[in-house]
């Protein structure tokens, strides 16, 4: 059986690896909102209801460290920082769109 290596961890299934990378309550939502255009921290905080400042900061840092987000600091006063998808993050676009489409179908089917 093939094995897959990511960040010094071995996985026996590519789906397991994928879930490990984007796992977390908020990562997919952050990626979804940044997919459309670069976002500032405050925008993300407003868009993602229920996320604390601490968890948003940790999630952004994790996604940046994993190579999915790029943090752009404009070195202005007041501080102006934006987050945008990297090329690796853009590779998740079809996955995020599929999740959106499934959610729309599931929502429609559940209400009927």
From TrEMBL:
InterPro entries to which the protein is assigned, alphabetical: HTH_HxlR, WH-like_DNA-bd_sf, WH_DNA-bd_sf
MF-aspect GO terms: DNA binding
A Pfam family annotated for this UniProt entry: HxlR
Lineage, top ranks: Bacteria, Bacillati, Bacillota, Bacilli, Bacillales
Annotated HTH hxlR-type domain residues: 13-111
Keywords: DNA-binding, Transcription, Transcription regulation
Protein name: Transcriptional regulator, HxlR family
